[in-house]
Amino acid sequence: MAQRQSKDQRSYRTSVVIVGTGFSGLGMAIKLKQAGIEDFIVLEKAADLGGTWRDNTYPGCACDVPSLMYSFSFEQNPNWSRMFARQGEISDYLQHCADKYRVRDHIHYGVEFSGAEYDEATQTWRVSTADGSEYVGKALVSGVGALHIPSYPELPGVQDFEGEVFHSAEWNHDFDLAGKRVAVIGTGASAIQFVPQIAKKVAKLHLFQRTPPWIQPKPDRPVPEALQRLFRRVPLVQRAARAALYWTLEARYFAVFNKHLGKLSEHLSKRYIRKAVKDPEVRAAVTPDYSMGCKRILLSSDYYPALNRSNVDLVTSGVAEVRKNSVVTGDGQEHPVDAIIYGTGFHVTDAFDHLTIVGRDGRKLQDAWRNGMEAYLGVAVSGFPNLFFLLGPNTGLGHNSVVFMIESQLNYVLGALRGICRGKVAQLDVRQSVQDDFNSEIQSELGDAVWSAGGCRSWYLDENGVNRTIWPGFTWKYWLRTRKVDPADFEITAARGR
Q1: Does residue 75 lie in a domain region?
Q2: Which domain range does residue 434 map to?
Q3: In a domain, 121, yes or no
Q4: Which of 322, 431, 461, 467 has the fewest CB atoms within 10 Å, measured from its CB?
């Protein structure tokens, strides 16, 4: 187990420092335990584990990936109550995993990661935290993820607003929305889940839309108890169902990456709009004018019907300013409100900008990513030895379960950590040429997808309009590339005495 060096110094030494306890960080801890490696510490800024499924507790919060695929392959859950699990069940699943694989003792709660510096003399990472503690490890694994830093729009005058203001990821459950006049800013993945829920309670809901999302019906329904019992008694049946679902989701790749087949999906979604939205003006306002797949495709069967309610007002003229008790739009209309709720998503392509991570020769990660974040296989960055990212650049998905990608990365990183933890390898640093070739290939493939079309604006893209978020292909291809570490891809330094 990791050892605390001194009570006064508040310094800890270990083989591996893992940051975060969502699917990525928790999964890495489990994989180390399964490999017989006990010398690691997991840093968690909150008082409990769970990552985004701990933080996001807004009404209606649920996954838009079917439950059977939104879990580890080595720990499948036969007890999902719905086809698309809700936040509470996913949070409980992660708690179950932490207990079953005995990783809780490795977690340091209330410790916020603030940066890290590679010490070339000792070939270790010195990790700094917000409370002044220091963690020294041979390797550093970032399981931070992209969807954890809420993005707030800059609205003139919002600091003078006298009502309640909060982000969907920081939901204020103490504030009673019943009978209130509420402004919702944004119509992304979170908003389309909580808007139908709060529309039933509020007196008036002003929904401010900048860009309408593509939405498809969500085929959600309860999982029959008989099927749950079958999964428990015959796990092979659940594995077969999961495999069938995996390949069904893989087929969605064509809707995202093939411009011609994507037109068929657009046609079906437009037909859904015509069927679900009564008002012709609202119908026109919620119909996207960009190619499907440019932005995240959303699933909901109750969002459009919520727009038919008499107390819901869809506003598309943009927010000009916020006053003490109202929101004023670009056309001069003033909308009196008691609360403002942001459904404006998260920082993604700039998620690491607030951290100071320094690699070899004093090179900062921000400098390495000056022209856009990139990594080999989304995992390793040249010049930053023994630093591994989980769900790093270009490993997000628009068609399948991101947990599948995480698990592929866990196995790959574990292959690199074995030699480090067992004292055979001092450092692995991916070759710059290998990283460059990989990212040239990635961007070439992305150039043929929907994001290359003019007018595409999305959180998938960085400030230069380059997609730094999505994996441009089938997930089974990524799995093949991450099955084992190729030593030729790295500059490897053997441990002293080896």
Answers
A1: no
A2: 11-49+103-148+348-494
A3: yes
A4: 431
What is the per-residue DSSP string for 368-420?
A: HTTT----BTTTB-TT-TTEEESS-TT-B-SSS-HHHHHHHHHHHHHHHHHHH
Same domain, 136 and 166: no
Q: Please, which pLDDT band fits residue 166 given cuts at 50, 70 and 90?
A: very high
Q: Are strands 164-167 and 425-430 parallel, antiparallel or unpaired?
A: unpaired
Q: Chain-centre distance of CA 311, in angstroms?
A: 32
Q: Which residue has the tokens 């039933």?
A: 200
- In this structure, the answer to whether residues 286 and 171 fall within a common structural domain is yes
The structural domain count of the chain equals: 2
User: Do 375 and 333 have their domain in common?
Assistant: no
- The answer to which of 142-156, 197-211, 264-278 has the lowest mean pLDDT is 142-156
Q: What pairing do the DSSP bridges indicate for beta strands 11-19 and 134-142?
A: parallel
SS (H, E, C) 261-278: HHHHHHHHHHHHHHHHCC
Domain end among 344, 373, 402: 344
- Considering the domain architecture, whether residues 320 and 463 belong to the same structural domain is answered as no
Q: What is the pLDDT of residue 265?
A: 84
Lowest mean pLDDT among 82-86, 141-145, 156-160, 223-227: 141-145
Per DSSP (E only), the strands in 90-133 are 107-109, 113-119, 124-129
Secondary-structure percent of the chain, ordered helix, strand, coil, rounded to 5: 35, 20, 45
